[in-house]
């Protein structure tokens, strides 16, 4: 008998700002992601108030799911998906983030998308916001610097919970909420202004987000007690560089930055260490009287997380490299992707164990995948054996975590199941999909979809419930 239960949620994952496009159609307002240009070397260096003539904004058309959702969902169904994770673009529902009226056309778009998914028996798994705060809220309130944005988030959540309560059961509040500690601009459009204390700004906004998340969880459960509402954490577990005790402390501290967020969302309160950090760093986090209770009442039902790579920490003064959202030391034992991300399937098992041991909540791996330069060959195909290898090894380790370690995992969604633009770099050439999309870094291409070899492989994995890898 398979160690994977029959109701396991196999599927794929994407985010509105990375694949949807239609950035100003159907009444949609600008989101933070819509204001990032592809800068030099296509890094998203600039952050502007909208559109500058001659600049390319990758998220504006992305891979145009907006106009192709029927074709794309049919392709997902062809792989046998049980679920599809995506986000709702907040500014499609509230274009400026705080207006009195919701945008009916935006709501209808997601009704259509969810109906199309459900037609094939695919369960939508929804991230309430995935790096997509409406730009209007950034301009007015500085995003989550202000508690006003908490109210806007809760109101938006209420609208979508009520509207889709019979279509969506699985939700997550903020994508990779812990990336706030590393890149608040990408996470929620927060800019640190001159004279501001970076940490003070980050942790105040983080508190506001944690309160917003907890309020949404509580409200969601009131609207539909069957809802399963999770957090979403970016998970590279950090190893110590050596068995030198100081390296162990360095790794512990790197992991504590992750746990800072998941502790609050899973346990409902700040850890002693987190509170001590506020004191030691002289951070003055404004909390309302009712916040403690809100956090307690709004803990999550499951832990959604992304895993691409592990990290390494050291007590030495050394140069770090950029991993997924976080900086780390290179791991000499790992082979790296073309983007320098260490491939570590065993680290995936380790990470599953760490999360489950700490919280004993069901885990949902909502992002795992391999970014590579794929080539559309003259036979009209994309041969991506490296991607198949990556997934095979990670799923094997996931099965060990379930079978040997007893970890409760409810689903696995392959990131960027269809090619989309990279969150970290704004590039199109860093492809993750099992479906190729004809579009390049400058936005050229006819958007034609082509099935990759990994598509057929994953179809077989789902059909055999993870037996035939
Ligand atoms: C995660 C994000 C995704 C995604 C992925 C891959 O951090 O949640 O949005 O993009 O990383 O990262 P990248 O696109 O930078 O390769």
From TrEMBL:
GO molecular function ontology, one term from the record: 6-phospho-beta-glucosidase activity
Top-rank lineage group of the source organism: Bacteria
Enzyme class: hydrolase
InterPro entries: GH, GH_1_N_CS, Glyco_hydro_1
Keywords from the UniProt entry: Glycosidase, Hydrolase
SUPFAM superfamilies: (Trans)glycosidases
Pfam families cross-referenced by the UniProt entry: Glyco_hydro_1
Keyword Hydrolase attached: yes
Key word Ion transport present: no
EC number: 3.2.1.86
Family according to the record: Belongs to the glycosyl hydrolase 1 family.
Name of protein: 6-phospho-beta-glucosidase
Protein species of origin: Breznakia pachnodae
